[in-house]
Write a structure and sequence with these properties.
- The chain folds into 2 domains: about 5-135, 3-Layer(aba) Sandwich (Rossmann fold), CATH 3.40.50.2300; about 135-220, Arc Repressor Mutant, subunit A, CATH 1.10.10.10.
- Helix 4 crosses helix 10, helix 7 packs across helix 10 and helix 8 crosses helix 9 (about 185-195).
- Strand 1, helix 1 and strand 2 (about 30-35) form a beta-alpha-beta unit.
- Strands 2-1-3-4-5-6 form a 6-stranded parallel beta sheet, sandwiched between helices.
- The longest helix has 14 residues, at about 185-195.
- By secondary structure, it is of the alpha/beta class.
- The relative contact order is 0.11.
- It contains 10 helices and 6 strands; from the N terminus they run βαβαβαβαβαβααααα.
- The protein is globular, with a radius of gyration of 18 Å.
């Protein structure tokens, strides 16, 4: 049975492009597309889709509607996954998205969503309760953290940095093993070493990805500012 998706995007061209892209994926069925927050929430209430694919900014305020949709649906429809599309690599938006929980949430940059497989993969992931964070956002955080004075990230080996980035992106142990060509045991050892060095705790369950995604992102963003200057979080 295909995953039912409702799209929220104020640009007609982008909205039609997303619909056309997803119409070519047999595992996805687009139920409706909307141009503003109010109509998006109405369609979600009426159709109760599996996933909402939404722009981060749309009418009425063109500020953070996508983040607000995610927060609202966490309360009213906790089983609906959310994929937020944004042109901003600013981690502030990502942390706001994950504030009420990272399970079933994805944050992708618009200029990188040109691959149907990538977009469909994110939709499938959030429908299954997992997390997906655009690698570019993680790259910005890691680079800024590395520039921070006395950062514990400096203690990590190059391989551990690769594993940390993969964790923050929302990859499971199996996915990390495949992408980095490591055994699952090696991945587990690297993860244990990373969380020990960074003084973080994480689930021993390799399938429980979401909590460790949030832990990794919160750590990376704690003192790192997107422009590379240390800035404490409020």
């Amino acid at each position: 049975m295909p995953l039912r998706v409702v799209i929220g995007e104020d640009s007609y061209i982008v909205r039609e492009g997303l619909r056309k892209m997803l119409d070519g994926a047999p595992q996805i069925r687009v139920e409706a597309d909307c141009a503003d927050l109010d109509s998006l929430l109405r369609e979600v209430a009426e159709r109760s889709p599996d996933v909402v694919l939404t722009d981060i900014r749309m009418p009425p305020t063109n500020t953070d509607e996508g983040i607000r949709v995610a927060a609202t649906l966490r309360e009213s429809h906790p089983n609906i996954g959310i994929v937020v599309l944004s042109q901003y690599a600013d981690p502030t938006y990502v942390l706001a998205l994950l504030e009420s929980g990272s399970d079933g949430r994805a944050y992708l940059l618009k200029d990188r969503v040109h691959d149907r497989a990538q977009l469909v993969g994110a939709i499938e992931a959030v429908a299954a309760g997992r997390s997906v964070i655009d690698p570019k956002v993680v790259e910005v955080l890691v680079a800024a953290k590395m520039r921070s004075e006395r950062s514990p990230v400096a203690q990590l080996t190059p391989r551990e940095l690769e594993v940390l980035a993969a964790i923050a992106e929302g990859k499971s142990n199996a996915s990390i093993s495949e992408s980095l060509v490591l055994t699952k045991r090696a991945v587990e050892k690297h993860i244990n070493a990373i969380f020990l060095k960074l003084n973080l705790t994480h689930s021993q369950d390799a399938d429980e990805v979401s909590p460790r995604v949030k832990a990794a992102l919160l750590f990376l963003a704690e003192t790192a500012h997107p422009d590379g200057d240390p800035e404490p979080r409020s």
